[in-house]
Amino acid sequence: MTGTAFDTRFESQRAALADVVAIPVTPFAEDGRIDQDTHRALLRRLLDGGVTTLTPCGNTGEFYALTAPERRLVAELTVEEAGDRASILVGVGHDVPTAVASARHARELGARMIMVHQPVHPYVSQAGWVDYHCAIAEAVPELGVVPYIRNAQLPGARLAELADACPNVIGVKYAVPDAARFAAFARDAGLDRFVWVAGLAEPYAPSYFSAGATGFTSGLVNVAPAVSQNMLQALRAGDYPAAMKVWEQIRRFEELRAEGGSANNVTVVKEALASLGLCRRDVRPPSKPLPESERAEVAAITAGWSI
Q1: What pTM was computed for the model?
Q2: Which of 27, 44, 71, 75 is a plausible cystine mate for 38, CB 3.0–4.6 Å?
Q3: CB distance 81 to 43 below 8 Å
Q4: How far apart are the C-alpha atoms of 293 and 151, rounded to whole Å?
Q5: Mapping DSSP to helix (H, G, I), strand (E, B) and coil, where does residue 5 land?
Q6: CA-CA distance, 24 to 291, in Å (whole number)?
Q7: What is the pLDDT of residues 145-166, one digit of tens each?
Q8: Nearest alpha-carbon partner for 138 in 177, 176, 96
Q9: Which among 250, 244, 256, 243 has a CA at the least distance from the CA of 294?
Q10: How far apart (Å, rounded) are the C-alpha atoms in residues 201 and 215?
Q11: How far is CA 259 from CA 247, 268, 295, in A?
Q12: What are phi and psi of 102, to 5 degrees?
């Protein structure tokens, strides 16, 4: 399969990616285990807020801090709670056998898509990147596959090569913080061949939409689903001034998340949820809760959103 053609079996999955792709948090109980009841409540809040695409086991869900049984539990809880109200894009990764096992588990649950986390191996070759994703995609040909790309050195031609071998690669979560690079990458890979998801969430969504993205990921949506939906509606309408008003509204919140190389990416989201009484602020190492002195600012921002 070459050029701009795509596999028509995955039309509903492609549509689901052209949306707010929510990355739910994973709440922890006082004993450190996953708080299943709170997890379900937070998922229901997202669904009631209009979210129709959920990514369990994403980075905002602390994917790399969860054990394999915990990742399975998170996927199971999400699929069960969502029912037919949302499309599920399960995050998978680590070594190939682990990723394949997670992908097959997602398929058994009834999920129809997986997102493959950026390989964390220190020595990633371009050809090896293709081989890694191909091994996972070929193991679950019935599922739509979405690579999560954070590698600025990867050329678009390699993604096209992957999709030639694996037509179930249908979308891309592109998370390189460079809108010009994204525009070139998407066109080199095939702009109309894939669904392009702005993988750096609301702060980058307007610039990435202007270059061809039709969806964006969001951790902020855990806190304020309506805010994320407002940005999506503006972007779908091509109303960039309206989208930038939302951008201004969430700017400080996202700056706090991005500080220190995104050290507090999850921490700030959980702090906001804690300020609303929705879950504990606990995160797992190498993340760390905000110090007391910085919590008030997050609470004030959150309160200002009229949630």
Answers
A1: 0.95
A2: 27
A3: yes
A4: 35
A5: coil
A6: 23
A7: 999 999 999 999 999 999 999 9
A8: 96
A9: 256
A10: 9
A11: 17, 10, 15
A12: -65, -40
Q: What gap in Å lies between CA 2 and CA 58, rounded to an integer?
A: 30
Token digits for 62?
Answer: 């602390």
* Closest-CA residue to 110 (of 138, 136, 134, 82): 82
- The answer to whether residues 63 and 299 touch, using CB atoms and an 8 Å cutoff, is no
Backbone angles phi, psi at 87, to 5 degrees: -85, 140
Length of the chain: 307
Extract the residue ranges of the chain whose pLDDT is less than 70. Answer: 1-7, 306-307
The mean of the pLDDT values for the chain is: 96
Query: What would the two tokens of residue 111 be?
Result: 């999920």
Tens of pLDDT along 92-135? 999 999 999 999 999 999 999 999 999 999 999 999 999 999 99
CA angle (264 as vertex; 244, 215 as ends), nearest 5: 40
Burial 225-257 (b: 16+ CB within 10 A, else e): bebbbbbbebbeeeeeebbeebbebbeebbebb
